[in-house]
Amino acid sequence: MNIQGKLIIIGGAVDKGSFTETELDKNATNNLNFFETGILKRILVESKHKELSRIEIITTASKIPKEIGPEYVKAFNSLGALNVDVLYIEKREQAMDSEILDRLKAADVVMLTGGDQLRLTSILGGTPFHDILLDKYRNEEFIYAGTSAGAAAASNTMIYQGSSSEALLKGEVKITSGLGFIDNVVIDTHFVQRGRIGRLFQSVVGNPKVLGIGLGEDTGLLITHNNRMEAIGSGLVILVDGREIKDTNLTEVELGQPISISHLVTHVMSKYDTFDLDTYKMTIQSSQYINS
Predict the structure, then answer these.
(1) Left if phi > 0, otherwise alpha if psi is -120 to 50, otherwise beta: which for 225?
(2) Which residue among 166, 225, 267, 270 is the active-site one?
(3) What is the per-residue pLDDT for 250?
(4) What's the whole-model pTM score?
């Protein structure tokens, strides 16, 4: 399938500028990256109409939608995007409302905030809202952007539970179906900060065809129609490739017992590095060997 849209998945805690400060001018250095190379800026650059794009913030995953939604509106406004609003969808019936569906049809960008990804999929999954989202992503110059829960839910396979400390004990990681914007990957967020590498290892060893993607905070991936992923933001993206696993005890141990894995391949990406989902080849933007 030739996808026309773009997917931007973010590991959470996206930089929205230091707008809690009363005197923004005195904090210009804190906001320099936000205005010039931040993730929200990149969303605008990649969008169909740039600063004129119609952007809808979707707060369904959050328990504090009235607080988080306006913060994103303020951040996008500060970047020159004034055609921004919040879609408050807290019940499945709202995801079938004609007025809300019309707003989605008119959107160039949707930004799904953080919170609980299971709340997100249980409310939106299988609704007309979900169907329109998928159709726009597949057939229009449209951006699905999601941070934290909004990113974790973007794939067909979704992690929704599992402690970091016990993630490599069999059965500790819980997986269900996501919103289905991308196949054959599983996405985890707040990855470096919360030590979630074990969650991704267990997710991948159960089905090594699935590429594990661990997104650090204020860090993301831009995924385009040619199956190319580019790292964006200030931190690290960890990729876990299980295709070359040589051995594991996964099916031999009881629930709650430690899992062993031999020959699990990992990659670490930072800003502007790219990864091809067709060839599984990573390109480091500032390679020390490129001219060797």
Answers:
(1) alpha
(2) 166
(3) 97
(4) 0.93
Catalytic entry in 148, 155, 203, 234: 148
State yes or no: is 148 an active-site residue: yes
Q: Is 267 a catalytic residue?
A: no
149-199 tens-digit pLDDT: 999 999 999 999 887 777 789 999 999 999 999 999 999 998 877 778 999
Which of 47, 56, 190, 230 is labelled catalytic? 190
State the amino acid at position 41 in one-letter form: K
Give the number of other CB atoms < 10 A from CB of residue 211. 23
Residue 150 is which amino acid?
G
As averages over each run of 10 residues, the pLDDT of the chain (292 residues) reads: 93 73 44 76 97 98 94 94 97 98 98 96 98 98 97 96 82 95 96 85 96 95 96 96 98 96 97 97 93 59
Beta bridge partners of 159: 175
Known catalytic residue at 190 = yes
DSSP the chain: ----SEEEEE-S-----STTSS-GGGGHHHHHHHHHT-HHHHHHHHSTTGGG--EEEE-TT-S-HHHHHHHHHHHHHHTT---EEEE---SGGGGG-HHHHHHHHH-SEEEE-SS-HHHHHHHHTTSHHHHHHHHHHHHSS-EEEEETHHHHTTEEEEEEE--STTTTBTT-SEEEE---SEEEEEEE-STTTTT-HHHHHHHHHT-TTSEEEEEPTTEEEEE-TTSEEEEEESS-EEEEE-TT--EE-TTTSPTTSBP-EE--EEEEE-TT-EEETTTTEEE-TT-TTTT-
**Tokens (6 digits) for 275:** 């990864």
